[in-house]
Recover the amino acids of this structure.
């Protein structure tokens, strides 16, 4: 920590939303030139704290000081005017406009109604050069990878002479090598004197990028201290208030070598999107009853595409999928009736019907089970939905609450309740714990283990290597649409998985980035 | 703040406002609280209720069916041609419904297979159907040749016209279909999040096509009932019927964005508008001002919908 005066200090801030204390008596200092990590479970108050600093929320009591003098912020625009800027979880760029146009948006130099194109471009070029954030300046933002889009957001913030920048879950949607690159960018920002507030669920990432870490729980600051004094375990302990030695429950025993093969995939090739692009080709593997198999790789390696094709949600050009020896014809209805369940990658976009109730979301694929002469028999439906939700530990006000009102972790569990209800023989879980708090993670892993215990085969697609290592019996690594390596049991080690995912000898991220 | 009150207001607001309007009219307006007046309102609303109850389902599924007006105009022209030729009123009615069904299926296929935006697709088919209406009627008014055709909607049973009974039956069918059946759940899922619905095994394209088919058939039936009430049908390219339908759906609180809404809402919305107009007429408000006020009320309803949605997220 530096002894210099804090750029922004929050003093005894409290904020209530309805009946919940989102923040109680929180004091934190953010210093120029330092990266300040902010960790806590969902609902711990991280976003509210960030909101108070950015002018999104006005604190009920307490104050925010800039350079030592109290500041009253009525809106995010107020905050931005003082150089306090947030880079949101959901990007707020215009995909159809160029990088340059996005960066200067709202602050274009102009003569009367006419935009000075060249002057604006020069400004963006200068920004890029100054901060070393390489982005193709004329590219349409929508055509760029997410990591580059994030850079555009950051450039935009820098173009407004930001002094403090809040990054909320900046790597949630990035592949591992992109995340590494972003961390470098963040360090550079700090080196140039920006105070960076780094909010993330990925604890190792927070530890590696931050100078200072604040741990929050239930709207309070548990502690603030140098990142070097913290470990993964100490952060988890601080966030949850209990010492869970491990997020991962013990793996169920690996299936016997003669356990029946549940899923067999032979030479599967994706349908061509256009002449050049093939998502994946010649993918073959099998999963036995009770076995949990991980599928890892960089974003774009074809993992989710394989999962979707096995499930019948995407077409294959060649190859076959067999479940217990029966050929799957390649439609979702076939897969469902054969006993395949999919937990899709994005629960908001692909998983849940946000406005509908917990019950409706749970039973959606299983409504035929409750068909009566006068429509759906709701009493057995309610009972079955409640049983499934209880089994996976969905905490809910009641079954009729819209699923959108649940926390992220509980929403994810609703998807598991839906899967459990079908008593699947194969569960395909794509990023099963994305954006989920530590407590819910463990309970999700327990659900997966329980299902494996009862003979269900599990295919787990994941970007979190830690998760794969902690839960899988066997791991398949994909690179550029092919399975390039397979590890089982004790061979599942992070370094080897990374090496396989990036390609031989290309462990350093920049090289891998170039290859992509 | 009022995070708890908002869903409740949103949920039953339109019903409360309609009841309040009813009480207000009952207290202030002579001639409002009479059986004749209510019977009249019910009878006048029958065609709109028939079309609007299924239009609600289409809108919840994420579709927007503007073609109801053209079907409403043209289906009775087919029906009356059949009636004039054969003298068979029942056959005529069936033909009217089938015309709507065919247009609806075509709409559904264009929207789901060709992936054309449903507003544009049904606008385009509307023009085609209006044109066919002029062809089939030879640009002239068609009149019922038998007494059986007018009897479809004008017969009184327990004091209420058969037109109103038909509307009640259609409304009940739509209500049950949406709230009680698997198909209804699939409608909400398809409109709420089509990709999530597809991955959960919902045949989204089939669900939407069926919605368009049913709303087309309902519009055809509405046209038959309406022409039976008026004893005739006239070719035109008048879109006003569908705007009344959409107004009822939206004022009731069904979301234009899809995924949310209910048949009961549309019934309440329809009666809210009908009571308002009835009140205006009984108070002899200038019809020109009636339109202005009616428009403002619809705008208000949609604004409240947009506002509460913004608050929820």
């Amino acid at each position: 920590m530096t002894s210099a005066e804090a750029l922004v200090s929050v003093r005894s801030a409290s904020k209530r939303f309805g009946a919940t204390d989102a923040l109680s008596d929180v004091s934190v200092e953010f210093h120029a030139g330092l990266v300040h990590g902010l960790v806590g479970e969902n609902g711990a108050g991280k976003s509210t704290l960030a909101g108070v600093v950015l002018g999104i929320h006005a604190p009920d009591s307490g104050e925010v000081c800039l350079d030592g003098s109290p500041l009253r912020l009525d809106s995010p625009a107020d905050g931005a005017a003082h150089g306090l800027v947030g880079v949101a979880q959901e990007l707020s760029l215009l995909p159809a406009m160029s990088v340059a146009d996005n960066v200067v948006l709202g602050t274009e130099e102009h003569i009367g109604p006419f935009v000075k194109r060249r002057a604006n471009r020069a400004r963006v070029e200068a920004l890029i050069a100054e901060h070393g954030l390489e982005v193709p300046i004329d590219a349409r933002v929508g055509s760029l990878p997410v990591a580059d889009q994030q850079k555009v957001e950051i450039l935009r913030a820098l173009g407004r002479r930001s002094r403090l920048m809040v990054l909320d879950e900046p790597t949630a949607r990035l592949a591992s090598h992109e995340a590494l690159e972003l961390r470098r960018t963040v360090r550079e920002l700090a080196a140039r004197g920006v105070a960076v507030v780094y909010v993330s669920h990925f604890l190792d990432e927070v530890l590696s990028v931050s100078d200072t870490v604040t741990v929050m729980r239930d709207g309070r600051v548990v502690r603030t201290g140098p990142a070097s004094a913290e470990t993964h375990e100490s952060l988890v302990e601080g966030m949850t208030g209990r010492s869970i030695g491990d997020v991962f429950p013990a793996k169920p025993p690996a299936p016997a070598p003669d356990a029946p093969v549940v899923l067999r995939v032979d030479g599967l090739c994706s349908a061509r999107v256009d002449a050049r692009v093939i998502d994946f080709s010649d993918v073959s593997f099998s999963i036995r009853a009770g076995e949990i198999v991980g599928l890892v790789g960089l974003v774009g390696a074809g993992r989710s595409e394989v999962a979707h094709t096995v499930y019948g949600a995407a077409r294959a050009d060649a190859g076959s999928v067999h479940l217990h020896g029966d050929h799957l014809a390649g439609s979702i209805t076939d897969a469902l009736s054969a006993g395949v369940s999919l937990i899709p990658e994005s629960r908001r976009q692909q998983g849940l019907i946000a406005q509908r109730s917990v019950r409706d979301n749970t039973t959606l694929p299983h409504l035929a089970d409750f068909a009566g002469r006068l429509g759906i028999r709701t009493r057995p439906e309610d009972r079955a939905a409640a049983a499934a939700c209880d089994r996976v530990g969905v905490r809910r006000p009641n079954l009729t609450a819209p699923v959108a009102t649940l926390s992220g972790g509980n929403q994810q569990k609703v998807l598991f309740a839906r899967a459990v209800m079908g008593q699947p023989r194969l569960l395909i879980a794509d990023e099963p714990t994305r954006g989920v708090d530590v407590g819910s993670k463990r309970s999700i892993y327990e659900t997966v283990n329980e299902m494996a215990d009862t003979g269900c085969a599990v295919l787990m697609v994941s970007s979190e290597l830690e998760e794969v290592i902690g839960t899988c019996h066997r791991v398949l690594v994909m690179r550029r649409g092919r399975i390039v390596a397979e590890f089982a049991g004790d061979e599942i080690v992070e370094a080897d998985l990374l090496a396989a995912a990036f390609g031989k000898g290309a462990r350093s991220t920049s090289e891998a980035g170039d290859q992509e | 703040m009022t995070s708890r009150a908002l869903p409740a207001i949103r949920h039953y607001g339109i019903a409360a406002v309609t009841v309040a309007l009813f009480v207000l009219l009952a207290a202030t307006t002579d001639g409002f609280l009479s059986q004749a007046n209510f019977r009249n309102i019910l009878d006048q609303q029958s065609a709109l209720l028939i079309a609007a109850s299924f239009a609600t389902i289409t809108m919840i599924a994420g579709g927007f069916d503007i073609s109801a007006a053209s079907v409403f105009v043209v289906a009775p022209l087919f029906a009356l041609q059949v009636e004039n030729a054969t003298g068979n009123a029942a056959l005529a009615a069936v033909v009217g419904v089938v015309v709507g069904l065919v247009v609806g299926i075509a709409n559904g296929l264009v929207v789901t297979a060709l992936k054309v935006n449903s507003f544009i697709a049904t606008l385009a088919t509307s023009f085609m159907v209006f044109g066919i209406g002029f062809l089939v009627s030879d640009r002239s008014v068609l009149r019922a040749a038998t007494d059986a055709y007018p009897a479809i909607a004008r017969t009184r049973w327990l004091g209420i016209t058969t037109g109103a009974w038909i509307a009640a039956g259609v409304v009940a069918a739509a209500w049950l279909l949406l709230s009680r059946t698997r198909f209804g759940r699939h409608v909400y899922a398809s409109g709420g999040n089509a990709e999530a619905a597809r991955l959960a095994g919902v045949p989204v394209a089939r669900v939407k096509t069926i919605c368009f088919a049913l709303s087309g058939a309902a519009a055809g039936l509405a046209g038959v009932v309406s022409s039976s009430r008026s004893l005739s049908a006239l070719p035109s390219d008048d879109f006003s019927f569908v705007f009344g339908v959409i107004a009822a759906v939206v004022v009731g609180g069904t979301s234009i964005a899809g995924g949310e809404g209910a048949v009961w809402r549309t019934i309440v919305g329809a009666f809210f508008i009908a009571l308002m107009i009835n009140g205006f007429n009984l108070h002899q408000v200038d019809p020109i001002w009636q339109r202005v006020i009616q428009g403002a009320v619809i705008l208000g309803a949609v604004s409240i919908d947009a506002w509460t949605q913004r608050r929820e997220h």
About this structure: The two ends of chain A are 38 Å apart (CA to CA).
